[in-house]
Amino acid sequence: MAKIISKNEIAPDIYSLLVQAPLIAAKARPGQFVILMVREKGERIPLTIADYDRERGTIRMVFEVVGKTTAMLSKLNEGDDLYSLVGPLGIPSEIKHYGTVTVVGGGIGVAPVYPIARELKRAGNRVIAIIGARSKKLLIMEEEMRSVSDELLVTTDDGSYGRKGFVTGPLAELLARGEKIDKIWAIGPAVMMKAVCEVTKPYGIETITSLNATMLDGTGMCGTCRVTVAGETKFACVDGPEFNGHHVDWVEFINRLARYKQQEKMAYELYKSRGDA
Amino acid sequence: MAQPIPIPERMKRPPRPMPEQRPEERIKNFNEVPLGYSVEDAIYEAQRCLQCQKPTCVAGCPAEVNIPGFIQKIVEEDFAGAYLEILKTNSLPAVCGRVCPQEEQCQKTCVYAKKGKPIYIGKLERFVADWARKHNIRENPPQVKREQRVAVVGSGPAGFTCASDLARKGYRVTIFEALHKLGGVLMYGIPEFRLPKEIVDWEINKAKDLGIEMVTNFVVGLTKSVDELAEEFDAIFLANGAGAPKFMQIPGENLNDVCSANEFLTRSNLMKSYLFPEYDTPIKVGEKVAVIGAGNVAMDAARTALRLGAKEVHIVYRRTREEAPARAEEIVHAEEEGVIFDFLTLPVRILGDEKGNVTGMECIRMRLGEPDESGRRRPIPIENSNFIIKVDMVIDALGTMANPLVARSATGVRTNKWGYFEVDEKTCATSREGIFAGGDIIRGSATVISAIGDGKKAARAIDEYLSRGGSLRKSRKPAP
């Protein structure tokens, strides 16, 4: 059981959840994730750790309502318990002094990018951040990101705020003008990470992506999260979730994300029409 | 009380089979296949036992159960007594009575075995445990109290047995489990129709009576390292199993409807996705499913696929029926339910469409050559015998291997080249004093009963270690 300290809707259908989890908070590092269950009949879903406070023993997660489980999660309130929460899982981001680092966050991918950017900054890197959303009201954590970046570029797909277009726009410009970038982190929807990798590949700059694969146990015992990286099968939960995006088989990865689309849709429709115990 | 019957008459009695759900019925549900003995059945079967002066059956039981002792109590109609007799050495009778390969263990060494009609010890054990559950028979908490603390990593059969044995001796035991439910493979691996989860829950949670503390959602290696546990506990037993699935490593294996048996069974058993959408975890099954492998896990996956609505399920195995590692009874059950066996067949490639869906599997025929180091005849491909099986789902049930998470966090605990812990066979002691290991994480995927045997062995060695004043907390420095 893990008690919810607070829950805030930070953008339409996007929530920030602060949970009491001292064991996880004590160990969590940027890049890691947890697996949680909302209820006993629930499924296990992975969420990246967006922040942690070792002294208070809390962790923070940001999620978007996209289906039944996240919808149920958004209905929980301060003082409620999660049925289960386990972590921290996965290999932490490799934080060290690289020089200039660019972090790219798309949609709710900004949340996991935040602690990475913060720690990179703390390690003495010059941090250029690019964050984007579909529109102004869906943009999250702009202030937090500004506080840990040397330069912050914002995009919206519809141009309602910042630059119009995708995060790949300003990134391509940075690279084209010869900005010396030593390493890139890109986290967001699979298509966005794939697009970022296509932009950075010709420059040969290592581009780390965090693969939000479908997961079950999250500890390496089932292989549902397997991905092909540089021709080898890896488990995103124990070998990742971060991998050099230039080596990821994106077509396969995106195909695998759609495996349960039909069932997921059915469960969500049923939940919206009649709710659930 | 039932009257003892004269020995010559006992010997004439045929064994009493256990009633089972009919195949055409049972493939439509997840209920248990064998239905259990009635009181009358159990007494009848128990009365066949000759109560040997030197019982040979006990030697065949790694859990060291006093078999004639508990059977005699059944004859006396003292079912609670029979249960407590078993519990003295085996904490998992409801499980063992169902999933142990008795034909290879206690029933093999029964004096009747030569005549082909051993006492059905497993069925009697199951009867006793089920009776105890129905009547809520509890065991007394341990009388002795000791201060030393033991950490057990993993709540599967090895860890659970070790924890129970130590708790009965009065030690303060904590079990750490990574999943949200206790029981390890008993909970996520073995299907409901062989081992109902309600029974596993009962059998395991009952151990709280012994004062065992059980912590779920705790991944040793990540939530805390073994080295950190060594600072809090006097001894540690590593029983984290061999849970990492093996894949064939052939082209097409990451197509969408190819999965490990671990994934398929964890969804169905632990997450109860056969009850989707009442339960939230989805599961998909194809119309034509190929299960690769012929162990118990392969049979479990094939029979689960049928129950989820697959129209045709194949077991694809590179050797023949004789070499198949599954229990004979499980192969028969699968056959009765309509599973098709493709022996001497090796998959070489999985075919798919552009959306990543499976459309077929290319295989090659095999023949058997000379025996290999495992003693089984080696399968050899027959050239140019390639053919395609039309399937839309493939489940790999090729066995499992060590998951390195625990080992990585344990300084000074040696592993072999497969990542299994190296232990002293007699004591389950690892290369670091105070740390013991057993079950699948020392030998790869094996049986529930061998894991129970290790749990008992380790408990004895840990008791000895602690009794002579050993403690991890005193010996801070790890062995070189």
Automatic annotation (TrEMBL), chain A:
<feature type="domain" description="FAD-binding FR-type">
    <location>
        <begin position="1"/>
        <end position="95"/>
    </location>
</feature>
<dbReference type="InterPro" id="IPR019480">
    <property type="entry name" value="Dihydroorotate_DH_Fe-S-bd"/>
</dbReference>
<protein>
    <submittedName>
        <fullName>Ferredoxin-NADP reductase</fullName>
    </submittedName>
</protein>
<keyword id="KW-0001">2Fe-2S</keyword>
<dbReference type="GO" id="GO:0046872">
    <property type="term" value="F:metal ion binding"/>
</dbReference>
<dbReference type="InterPro" id="IPR050353">
    <property type="entry name" value="PyrK_electron_transfer"/>
</dbReference>
<feature type="binding site">
    <location>
        <position position="237"/>
    </location>
    <ligand>
        <name>[2Fe-2S] cluster</name>
    </ligand>
</feature>
<feature type="binding site">
    <location>
        <position position="222"/>
    </location>
    <ligand>
        <name>[2Fe-2S] cluster</name>
    </ligand>
</feature>
<feature type="binding site">
    <location>
        <position position="225"/>
    </location>
    <ligand>
        <name>[2Fe-2S] cluster</name>
    </ligand>
</feature>
<dbReference type="Pfam" id="PF10418">
    <property type="entry name" value="DHODB_Fe-S_bind"/>
</dbReference>
<keyword id="KW-0408">Iron</keyword>
<dbReference type="InterPro" id="IPR039261">
    <property type="entry name" value="FNR_nucleotide-bd"/>
</dbReference>
<dbReference type="InterPro" id="IPR012165">
    <property type="entry name" value="Cyt_c3_hydrogenase_gsu"/>
</dbReference>
<dbReference type="Pfam" id="PF00175">
    <property type="entry name" value="NAD_binding_1"/>
</dbReference>
<dbReference type="InterPro" id="IPR001433">
    <property type="entry name" value="OxRdtase_FAD/NAD-bd"/>
</dbReference>
<keyword id="KW-0479">Metal-binding</keyword>
<dbReference type="InterPro" id="IPR017927">
    <property type="entry name" value="FAD-bd_FR_type"/>
</dbReference>
<dbReference type="GO" id="GO:0016491">
    <property type="term" value="F:oxidoreductase activity"/>
</dbReference>
<dbReference type="GO" id="GO:0050660">
    <property type="term" value="F:flavin adenine dinucleotide binding"/>
</dbReference>
<dbReference type="InterPro" id="IPR017938">
    <property type="entry name" value="Riboflavin_synthase-like_b-brl"/>
</dbReference>
<dbReference type="GO" id="GO:0051537">
    <property type="term" value="F:2 iron, 2 sulfur cluster binding"/>
</dbReference>
<dbReference type="GO" id="GO:0006221">
    <property type="term" value="P:pyrimidine nucleotide biosynthetic process"/>
</dbReference>
Automatic annotation (TrEMBL), chain B:
<dbReference type="InterPro" id="IPR006004">
    <property type="entry name" value="SudA-like"/>
</dbReference>
<feature type="region of interest" description="Disordered">
    <location>
        <begin position="1"/>
        <end position="22"/>
    </location>
</feature>
<dbReference type="GO" id="GO:0051536">
    <property type="term" value="F:iron-sulfur cluster binding"/>
</dbReference>
<feature type="domain" description="Dihydroprymidine dehydrogenase">
    <location>
        <begin position="26"/>
        <end position="136"/>
    </location>
</feature>
<dbReference type="Pfam" id="PF14691">
    <property type="entry name" value="Fer4_20"/>
</dbReference>
<feature type="domain" description="FAD/NAD(P)-binding">
    <location>
        <begin position="149"/>
        <end position="455"/>
    </location>
</feature>
<dbReference type="InterPro" id="IPR036188">
    <property type="entry name" value="FAD/NAD-bd_sf"/>
</dbReference>
<dbReference type="InterPro" id="IPR009051">
    <property type="entry name" value="Helical_ferredxn"/>
</dbReference>
<dbReference type="InterPro" id="IPR028261">
    <property type="entry name" value="DPD_II"/>
</dbReference>
<dbReference type="InterPro" id="IPR023753">
    <property type="entry name" value="FAD/NAD-binding_dom"/>
</dbReference>
<protein>
    <submittedName>
        <fullName>Dihydropyrimidine dehydrogenase</fullName>
    </submittedName>
</protein>
<dbReference type="GO" id="GO:0016491">
    <property type="term" value="F:oxidoreductase activity"/>
</dbReference>
<dbReference type="Pfam" id="PF07992">
    <property type="entry name" value="Pyr_redox_2"/>
</dbReference>
